[in-house]
Specification:
The structure holds 2 protein chains of 2 kinds. Chain A contains no helices and 9 strands. Chain A is mainly β. In chain A, the strands form 2 sheets. Chain A has a 6-stranded mixed β-sheet with strand order 4-3-1-2-5-8, with no helix packed on it. A 3-stranded antiparallel β-sheet of chain A has the order 6-7-9, with no helix packed on it. The N and C termini of chain A lie far apart (33 Å). The relative contact order of chain A is 0.24. By secondary structure, chain B is an alpha/beta fold. The longest helix of chain B is centred in the middle third of the chain and has 22 residues, at 202-223. In chain B, the strands form 3 sheets. Chain B has a 7-stranded parallel β-sheet with strand order 10-11-9-8-12-13-14, sandwiched between helices. A 4-stranded parallel β-sheet of chain B has the order 4-3-5-6, sandwiched between helices. Chain B has a 3-stranded antiparallel β-sheet with strand order 2-1-7. The chains are: A mainly beta, B alpha/beta. The interface between A and B is medium-sized, with 22 and 23 residues.
């Protein structure tokens, strides 16, 4: 199974290690997440649902806010994350 | 305390290399310097584009170049000028002599043109190379070590893997009594609170807030607020989105120890030790030159997408963030942080090996950038803008 990893336990996004296709399951530590988007390697996948305006957390800190509702398995990048 | 074998200089600083370097005091003399360097293999040219004109920058430029030349990796310095440049060749030479460094200078307008200066400099270069051979390495503690930390062409693995590894090495060097420098002001935007909370005193915290705030304003004024807070194209492709995300990855290079000092660009570290933050440029070759000017004998450099950069007279340890970049740039990389995954999601084995490699580099083992002769040009930040 393709893998990802979480940097800090309080993060709501993880990093995928390989290119992921829609519908693929990604093993991230103890959890499995089904990708809802195509996600390039090294990019971010949501590992929890994030409401619009809520902080997106990586490195145990807020890196920005969700532009719209982000669902578990979504690719998180410029289209749905702002500063 | 860990020890290494270094070249103890008259001012107490310790070199990990023993180079004879040659620098033009104006770019007008660069051709002559190149000829001399070709004629005397073994000396290292420090070529740059500066030295005259721009009167507002002359003092700053002279101070920075002097500090770079003072680096303990230099056994001796040869300066080649033409005679009418803005920089004072005599002042640079006397400042270097005051530290006990061997210095020779020649000016073409009074020494017989380029041919006359070349002849004099070639003779001196051979003499210095012979004298350098007589230097012996001595055992010194890691408290004599100053490292600069840098990241370039970062991707999503740079922060959590390569910079994390650098941060853990930085913590180890600080624990051993050495110094570690983190620079690149624009890459600290968003880390003001994190760094301020780690400062030993309130003045340092204010200085850091002040220069990061200035860098953020300059960047926003130049490219607009929104662009200033989204990462560049290479970083975007590498999976990073916001400047805060990049910053959180960048500051990992500084590990977890308290901030013990704040420096301006290329300002000497002197007797300061511990983690030091430098108000410096984000452009890698300029930033690296700033660390060398501050007295760093070695730079730890992480790269996501890959960068072959070296420094002409000092080693850079290159740390690839992932297998792909390590393999693509195999001849240019020293360490592969991507091994984290093969090692079972831990940096511990790699950290132990990298410590050993770092100690061997201090003792003289060449890094990839040295083997590949990637020194190139000396680039310095000539104006005080962070951009």
């Amino acid at each position: 199974m393709k893998k990802g990893f979480i940097i800090d336990s309080s993060d709501n996004v993880a990093i995928v290690l390989e290119d992921i296709a829609v519908g693929e399951t990604v093993e991230i530590g103890a959890i499995n997440v089904v990708a809802r988007d195509q996600i390039p390697a090294v990019h971010k996948i949501a590992i929890a649902d994030i409401s619009a305006g809520e902080n997106v957390r990586k490195f145990g800190d807020a890196i920005g806010k969700a532009k719209e509702k982000i669902q578990t398995g979504d690719w998180v990048h410029v289209h749905n994350l702002f500063c | 305390m860990e020890t290494f074998m270094g070249y103890v200089r008259p001012d107490g600083s310790v070199g990990i290399r023993n180079h004879v370097v040659i620098m033009p005091t104006t770019a007008c003399a660069a051709g002559t310097v190149q000829r001399i360097a070709r004629e005397v293999p073994g000396i290292i040219p420090l070529l740059h584009t500066l030295g005259c004109g721009r009167p507002a920058e002359v003092d700053r430029c002279q101070r920075i170049l002097t500090n770079i030349l003072k680096n303990p990796n230099h056994f001796a310095v040869i300066l080649v000028g033409i005679g009418c440049e803005g920089l004072s060749i005599e002042k640079i030479a006397s400042d270097l002599e005051a530290t006990g460094k061997h210095v020779f200078f020649t000016k073409m307008q009074t020494d017989g043109g380029s041919a006359g200066s070349e002849e004099k400099a070639v003779l001196k270069a051979h003499e210095y190379l012979e004298a350098a051979k007589q230097c012996k390495r001595e055992t010194v503690g890691l408290d004599k070590l100053i490292v600069g930390t840098e990241c370039g062409a970062s991707d999503g693995f740079s922060g959590p893997l390569a910079n994390q590894l650098i941060g853990e090495l930085s913590d180890w060097i600080v624990e051993q009594g050495g110094a570690s420098i983190v620079g690149e002001s624009i890459e600290l935007i968003g880390a003001e609170d994190i760094l301020a909370a780690r400062c030993k005193d309130q003045n340092m915290a204010s200085e850091i807030r002040s220069f990061i705030g200035r860098a953020e304003k300059e960047l926003s004024d130049a490219i607009g607020w929104e662009n200033a807070h989204i990462v560049n194209k290479v970083n975007l492709e590498g999976g990073m989105t916001t400047i805060k995300e990049k910053t959180l990855g960048c500051v990992r290079k500084g590990g977890k120890t308290p901030v013990c000092g704040v420096l301006s660009y290329a300002e000497p570290v002197g007797e300061r030790r511990g983690l030091i933050i430098q108000d410096g440029p984000g452009f890698d070759p300029e930033s690296v030159a700033g660390f060398i000017g501050s007295g760093a004998q070695l730079v730890l450099f992480s790269t996501g997408k890959g960068n072959p950069i070296g420094f002409p007279s000092s080693p850079i340890i290159k740390i690839a963030s992932c297998d792909d970049t390590f393999n693509k740039f195999s001849g240019n990389m020293d360490v592969n942080a991507g091994r984290f995954l093969a090692d079972g999601n831990t940096l511990e084995p790699l950290k132990a090996e990298t410590k050993e490699f770092l100690l061997s580099v201090l003792n003289g083992e060449l890094t990839a950038s040295e083997k590949q002769d990637q020194g190139g040009l000396l680039c310095i930040q000539t104006i005080t803008s962070a951009l």
